[in-house]
Each structure stands twice: as structure tokens, then as C-alpha cells.
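User: Please predict structures.

Assistant: First:
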Amino acid sequence: MARWSPTDLTAIVDQACTRLRADDGRLWGHQPAPRWILVDEDVWWLTEPEGGATASGRMWAHDADPHAAVANTAVEWHGRDWAMIELGTDLPTVPLLLHEAFHAFWQPEWGWVTPAGGGDTSLSQPVGRAAVITELRAWGSYLETGDPAVGRGARSIRDWRLDQLSDAERERQDYFDLWEGIPEYSALRWDRTPTGEVADLARSGPRGGSWFRSLCYTTGPVLGYVLDHFDPGWRLGLRAAGSLSSMINSAVPPTESGAADLLDAYGYAETLHAEESAHVAWSIEDRVLRDRFATMLWIPNPGSVTFDPREVRHWDLGTFYRILSVHTDDLRLIVEDGAIVTANWSWIGLPAPESYDGSALTVTGPGWRMESMSPVHEHGVVLSSEAPE
């Protein structure tokens, strides 16, 4: 049963399309015509006719595809690209529609972006988190004041923060700033979000308790708006530069004295103390989580994983995702309380069930449920404390 009327959904889609028409391709130099799938429980609302969908006003209703993974993402369906939005109890925002449209209709040309590896744990450590908060406060002050000297100070604080990271972690953050941060920046620009609101976003800090996968949703827009001030034509050089960090380094000079004299102005010491206190509770919770994975049921990754980027932790064994799902033609996995994905994305590890019957079609364990069209063991599952080779 659908929760939303096609009239409500048409109104929000119209707003997104109006924003894009007003831009007329100026932001990125071209203007595709996006199409959306709005997933409303067992009904898919399409913005264009496809696959026998029934017209309802200016939307088209289609039965939910039971074999398709549902998430806020870009998908290929019936041979065409779509931006998919999973509807909840509130209408989606215009920036959300635009963000996913960027993934589906602008980013396919970004084959030059190379996925990064696993990085490190700096974003779960007090020093790393306090440094991020301090840098963002500095950029927020620049966006609020427009003072180039404040911007140079923020650049120096950024240099100081990045110098503390491993090469792998810098590469990982650069990758996500491009792959997720730029769509978020673009959505806000298309939606004509004022600079002051992005300054507030910077001062508020990253969203979610874990920043391993969510930091980019803040840094992408913030750094993009900073570059709009220092170098309005920066987007033309993004591919050659290869990262937002390179663009910032080219456009924003650092101060001569570095970051040491600036940290107190943005409350670094107090922030570090608060993060150290919070880390005690976080560490206890993290140990409890790890203990749940002493023995795991491993399943080969079929390549259709969706997850919540706000609840992610980087472990030596792999990446912990609190919320995760897999949908294929013959397998459905719903994880509501934690799974591990190996660094190469080859395996998904689940807390072992109390009992395991490989001949069953349905297997449940702590916080997860797996349903298969064939006996589970035919998917190559392995019961082990270590990831399979």
C-alpha cells in the first residue's frame, strides 16, 4: 500500500527539475534529463513510463521489483539509468533528489575517479575527530566572513590535520569527497542553498556517530563552497587536479606561521578533551560489537550491497556496517544490527547463528535474516572466525 499520493511526489520532483532548468547546465557544463524511481513500500513511482507502469497523474505506478536492491542510489533498471529514492515517513528533500540524480546522470562520466582502499581509524580517534571539527569550524568562519586571511588560516589547519593521516587515509578521504561530497555540493548549489547555511553545516560538524563514510557529506559541500569563493572556475580543473584537496592547495594559500597559533581560536583543546571523554564509552561499545563477531557466517558478496553510511566502523578484519542489505534474483539478506565487509568487498561476515542448517532456505542470526531460493549452502557460505581466502 503506497503512503504517498502522486500529487505530493510530482510537486517535489517538479521543484528538483525547476532547479536544474534554472541552472541550464552551467554548474558542470552539461544538462542531462534525470529520471527518478521513488520507492513507496510496494509501489514504485516513476517519473517516466517504463515496463508496463500505470499512469497516475504525472507519475507512473509500477509494482515493486522483488529482485532489485532498494536504496538511495543510482540504478540501472529495464536497460536505463535511474536515480532511486527510498521514501520514508517524510517527503524526500529536493537536495536528496538532486544528489542521487548526480550519481545517475553526471557521475557515469567520472571513470577517472579511482576507488580508494581501507584507510585507517583516525576518524574514530579523539585526536582525528577533534582535528576535523576544528578544521570545519575554521572553514565555517571563512564562509561566514569572506575574509581571505581566515580562509588561509583554515587551509593551514587543514594541512596540519592531513599531515597526521596515513597516505591511505588521505586517499580514502579524497575519494569520498569526490564520489559523495561532490554530489552533495552539487545538490546544494542547484537548490540555491545560501553560503551562510553551508557555514552552519561546517560549524555543526559531520553527521552521525561514525564519520568513516559520512564525513564527505559535510566536507564536500564545505570545500566546494570555499572554492566557489577563491576560484569560481575550479570545476573545470577538477579532473586534472584529481581531488578537492589538490584544488584547495592550488586556490587557497596557507598562512606563513602555520596552524599552531590558530587552534585555540577554534576551541581545539576543549574539543579534544570532550572527544577523549566520549571515546571511553565508544571504546566499550566497540569491544562489545567486536565480541559478537568471534565466529561468523561468511557469504560471498554478490555485488548488490546497500548500507547506511552513518553507522560504519573500520576494523582490521573489514568494515563494520550497522545497517546493510543484499538483494539478488535468488538471495535476500537484511542486516539490522551489524555485518562486516572485507576490504576487497569479496565477503560479508555475519555474527554466527546459534544453529546453522545449510540446507535451509531461510537462516536467521543475531540482528540479521537471510532468505534464499535455493539451500543456503549453495551460495558458498563459510562458518569461520576468519575471512575466507
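Second:
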Amino acid sequence: MLKFVLLLIYLNLVLGDIECPPNYLLFEDGLCYQFLSEAAVHKIPGQHKCESEGGNLPKISGILQNAIVTNISLNATDVTWLGLTCSRDDTCIWDDGTKMNYSNFDSGLADVSQGNCVFINILPAKRGKWSSADCASDLKDVICQTNQKSLQPNITCPDTYIKGSDDRCYLSPNFKLEFNNAENLCSETASNSHLTSISSREENNATQLISQAAHFTDIFIGLEAGSKGYVWIDGTQFNYPYSYSNFEDGQPNIKVGNCVAMNVTTGKWKSICCNQKTSFVCLQKC
């Protein structure tokens, strides 16, 4: 354990003064990692634990990252989840919605007969190899991965937009529109502006605070159900239920509607009819 901690401190010093979020350490791939000890949970609660820490379950894009996650996993009491889900043996998607372009499965492919989720092995014979498991298995520890903190002290928002607590630029028009009309208005107010997308608890809290300041009750967010599942209208990757979401119990429910609204009091999301005139918040991405 001491050697593990010393290694992390050494890497953090050698790689320079680049800021990771609190409780995270920087590794050679330029990403930040945190090990949550005694966090034995199944897949989705594991992802939620990482979200509460500002990260996600690991996404592995090559040999270096596989080695990093493997080495961190040696501190675990059991195998650790990856942020990967497989619908077939040869079809796997990372929780951020991107396709898998590197794999290290023990048998060459996933084995969905064992389950749709994926963990990384720590036993010597299979160390660093990936295996499939039931997503409801609760014998896995948790490693969280996130990007270095982006420092943008001089960010300038467009006219009429204000900076949120997450350093993103928001506009909260004081009237209600249907979903498509709200999106059209957002796109007309500034370049690269859309109904707000939300990828973390921090962004959800910022959107909620902006909406509360405007005295809104419910707001459209830029998430809607399509033929291939839920998508963010601005193109932000989303892979429900593994990507960040904050739905109320019993939601989403497409019988109610294909669009999604936030309850401004609770910050929780719910399905809503797209034609229902509703308050909304625009997000301008830099």
C-alpha cells in the first residue's frame, strides 16, 4: 500500500504542476484517477459514486491506459469495473457513448453470456485482461477517471449570457416555448448555442441554480428520445443509463413524452411532451 501511494506522489510531481480535481492524481496518460476503497458495488451505483467525485468509471483507449488502470487495480480487494457495456460479444460501447477501439478481453472478445458489463482482472494469470460480468454483481471495487481541471479564469460569455458556477455560459429567456422553438431560439442567440446539455453533477447544479435565479419551475433540457435512444441535441455523447443522468424515480417515461425537463426545485429530470410550452435554458459552448 505504501509503495502504491509513493508511486502516485512521484508521478504527480514528475509530470508537473497540472491540476487534477481534489482526491485525484495525475498519471502518464494525462488523465486523473482516484481509487475508492471498500466501494464494492454493482456497475451503475459504481458509476454514480464516480460522478459524485466528478469522474467516471475508466475508459481505456490503449496499452498505456490499460497498464495504468491495472496498476491502480492492484490496490483493490477485488476486480474493478470499467466504463464499458457490451450488447453482443463483438459490440461494446463506452459509457460516454463512444465505440470501443481498443480491447484486452481475456478470450479476445466479450462474453455476454456472462453479463453485459466489463471488469479488469487483477489475478496474476489474467492480470490486466478484461472479462464480462453481470452488471448487478456487487463484488467490484471502483476506480474513477477524469480530465485535468480546465482553468478558464478569463472566459467571456456572449452578450445577455451569464457565467454559471461551472464556468459555462447560460441564457435564461423569460418566456415559455415548445421544445423545437426553444432550441431554435437558443441557436439564434449565439454561435454554438443550444438547449443546455448536462454531463456531470456540477453542470446539473449550475443549470439548477441559473433556473432558480430566473424563478423557473420546470425547464426543458436538450435531451430527447430518438429512434436509437436518448441523445443530447448539441451532440454531447450520451449512453443511457451509464452516462450521467438525474432522472426521478420511474423516469424516463416516453409514454409521457420524448423530451426531458428538469424540476428546478429538486434538480431531477422527467419526461415531458415536446409540445408543452415550458421555460428553458440555453448553453453556449466555447
